[in-house]
Structure formats: C-alpha cells, structure tokens
Amino acid sequence: MKHVVITGANRGIGLELVRQVAAKGHAVTAACRRPDAAEHLLALQESQPEVDVVPLELNDAHSIDRFVHELDGRGIDVLLNNAGIYGQRDATLGKVDAEAWHEAFHVNTIAPLMLTQKLLPHLRKGADRRLAYLSSKMGSIADNTSGGSYVYRSTKAALNQVVRSLSEDLRADGFIALALHPGWVRTDMGGPNGLIDTETSASGLWSVIENATTEQSGHFLNYDGSTIEW
Ligand code: NAP
Fold first, then answer.
1. From the alpha carbon of 58, which atom of ligand 1 is closest?
2. What is the pLDDT of residues 51-76, one digit of tens each?
3. Which ligand 1 atom sits closest to the C-alpha of 13?
4. CA distance to 57, 137, 221, 226, per residue, from 101 (Å)
5. Distance 136 CA to ligand 1 centre (A)
C-alpha cells in the first residue's frame, strides 16, 4: 500500500484521483481548503476509510505548515500537486490584471514548490519517491500559436521549470518528478466542452505516474503517456 497525497481533492480531477487511487487500496491524504464543505470527499471516506481529509489552503503559509504538521512524520510515496486555478479568464493584451496574476502565480507555481520543500523529509521516507505536478498544455511555449491567456499560460510554463529543476536536484536521490497535462477535461475549470471526463483523465494520469521511469523524470507528459513539447 502506498501513501499518496493529493491536493485540490474536493472536486474535479483531484476528487476523481482520490476515488481511483483509494479504490486500488492505497492510503490517500486528500488535501482541500474546506473539509467541512467537501461533501463528495466525506461521502467517499465512508466507503474508503483509508482516505484522510486534511485542510490545506495553498495561499496561506501557516496552512501549509499545519498540513505538514498533521502528517506527523509519516512517509509519503507519491505527492500529487493537482490544485490550481485558471485565474483571470479575460487575461488578453491590454486587460491583464497584476493582482490576479500574482494570485495565480502563488497557487500554480510557488505553492507547489513550497509544499514540496516542506514535505521532503516525508518524501524521503517513502519508497516510491514520485512527485507529480498538474501543468497544462497551455503552459507549453511550443504549443502557443494563439497567444493570450497571459496569466494561466505563464504560471504553468513557470511550473514546468520548477519541475525540471526538481528532477535535476533530486535525481541522485531516486526521485521522479513529472509535469503532467491531464487533457482538456470536463470540470469547473475545463468547462462542459472538454474532450474527456475526469475518469479518463485520472486513470491515465495515475498510470503515467505509476509507470514512469527514472529516464522520464523532468519530462512533460500527456495523460496518455505521450511527450509534450516544452
Ligand atoms: P477545478 O475543477 O477548478 O478544481 C481545482 C481544485 O484546486 C479545487 O479542489 C480547488 O479547491 C483547488 N484549489 C484552488 N485554489 C486553491 C488554493 N488556494 N488552495 C488549495 N486548493 C486550491 O480544476 P481541475 O479541472 O480539476 O484542474 C486540476 C488541475 O489540472 C489544475 O492544476 C489545472 O490547472 C490542471 N488542468 C486542468 C485542465 C482541464 O481541462 N480541466 C487542463 C489542463 C490542466 P476549492 O474547491 O476550494 O476552490
């Protein structure tokens, strides 16, 4: 049984990842901002007692510290940084709002590294040493042929650099760090026109994470395992 930590676990891709990973018999620490309001997670916990719901607000350094404290030195096999925001929807040239940009950078880029740094002693105790970060194809510079979306695109491109540095810095310790695109998924963020459902995305992502080789560490991978150009 692995111990898997998943952020943004109360809805969307994160919730489905919790459901699927717990169904495989793994212990899951499901992090979300408001456990008391996380009705789907709490319902899931009734049938899957190995799901532990723990509060985590990525915009608050104290909340990150409390989250780490809650884990009480327990080893972690897989850290799945799923939580993220699109931020300003109309971030087109001439309309970009600096405050909205700051917030998106914090949640999408800075907080995942802060959480990783603080959880490193736990991750070193785990057997699997896997770090997964939900990036986006919209963060791919090679794929950007339509412009716009300055806020979201830049935060995910920067996250990709974070993942790449982590893969280099932790390679000798046997860690595998992955930047992952979940597909265009029908969630609150992806909207109703997304190409795939959360079940397809989560099962693909988990398979990529479980089967990733050390040679793939520092790569940008699609939920189907194919490589995405930076
Ligand atoms: P979603 O349905 O909007 O869910 C986002 C999750 O992140 C929610 O659980 C949310 O919690 C959490 N979150 C947001 N801000 C947070 C904060 N400050 N602290 C802690 N948790 C926070 O999004 P999704 O579609 O499942 O996306 C999951 C990940 O995949 C994101 O990183 C996203 O950028 C990436 N992605 C999604 C798509 C897509 O098509 N859906 C495509 C490419 C990449 P609350 O409920 O408390 O807000």
1. 19
2. 999 999 999 999 999 999 999 999 99
3. 26
4. 18, 18, 25, 30
5. 11
